[in-house]
Amino acid sequence: MSKLLHFFLCMIFSSVMVSAQTGSIQGKVIDDLGLVMPGAGIMINTTPPQTTFTDNGGKYQMTGIPVGNYTLEISYIGYKTLNFDVTVESGKITTQNISLIEESVLGDEVLILGDRLRGQAKALNQQKNNANITNIVAADQIGKFPDANIGDAVKRIPGITMQNDQGEARNIIIRGMAPQLNSVMINGERVPSAEGDNRNVQMDLIPADMVQAIEVNKAVLPNMDADAIGGSVNLVTRKATDGLRLSGTLAVV
């Protein structure tokens, strides 16, 4: 019994000593306008290197980092890759907030402009870093087409078709699954059907102008609701601005 107690005490003491020799790094990634940057890649040059990504609020956190001086590398599609020197102290949290700078990247076949389609650049970066199969479309990409409602906008995404009702794209079909096997959310909250006898969500009732991004999850993760066999669609609405915002549409026939 004494040997077992001695073993547990040694294990507790060792874990305390190890935690005392490590620290944490946290912060927030924004752009030059102060907007958050979800899905930004954060890498620290530990041995081996550790990588994390910012959440939907642009925040990140890395724990269990050994004490010492390191370099943080932040990458984002359409923005310049930045490096920051950070010092990790024992048992403390180091805060490193980051502001990204737009950049144009010219390749042999691809031209990426950071100052154009800014929302779609964020969408592509978040889609690339997601753990599951997703398609994310931003408002600036939706605005390139004359879609009055979300049903018409969603049907342009690969793997998605719509059931038409009276000429309107109403019920969503993901990967060939029936509409009642898919779920629709607004800002992460499940949306019920407007009809009392089925689970179909009428997508033609939602105007395209009120949506900031469309997130289509074609594979459900363990932290998601298990009510979508085919997939789930999350509609992120526009955020209210502090000042005056003008919006217009120009078309040529």
Outline the secondary-structure elements:
Layout (H helix, E strand, L loop, with lengths): L1 H19 L1 E9 L10 E4 L5 E4 L5 E8 L1 E9 L2 E10 L4 E3 L2 E2 L5 E2 L4 E2 L5 H12 L4 E5 H4 L7 H5 L5 E6 L2 E7 L7 E5 L2 E2 L20 E7 L13 E7 L16
Parallel strand pairs: 1-7, 1-8, 14-17
Antiparallel strand pairs: 1-4, 2-3, 2-5, 5-6, 9-10, 11-16, 12-13, 14-15, 16-17
What are its keywords?
5-stranded mixed sheet; Ferric Hydroxamate Uptake Protein, Chain A, domain 1; 253 residues; 2 domains
Explain what you see.
The chain has 253 residues and is an alpha+beta fold. The protein folds into 2 domains: 86 residues, Immunoglobulins (Immunoglobulin-like), CATH 2.60.40; 108 residues, TonB-dependent receptor, plug domain (Ferric Hydroxamate Uptake Protein, Chain A, domain 1, Beta Complex), CATH 2.170.130. Helix content is 16%, strand content 36%. It is globular. About 2% of the residues have low confidence.
Mean pLDDT: 79
The geometry reads as globular
CATH topology tier name of the largest domain: Ferric Hydroxamate Uptake Protein, Chain A, domain 1
CATH superfamily of the largest domain: TonB-dependent receptor, plug domain
Distance between the termini: 87 Å
Structural class: alpha+beta
Order of helices and strands: HEEEEEEEEEEHEHHEEEEEE
Share of residues in strands? 35-45%
Total strand segments: 17
> Which CATH architecture of the largest domain?
Beta Complex
Considering DSSP H and I runs of 4 or more, what fraction of the residues is helical? Answer: 10-25%
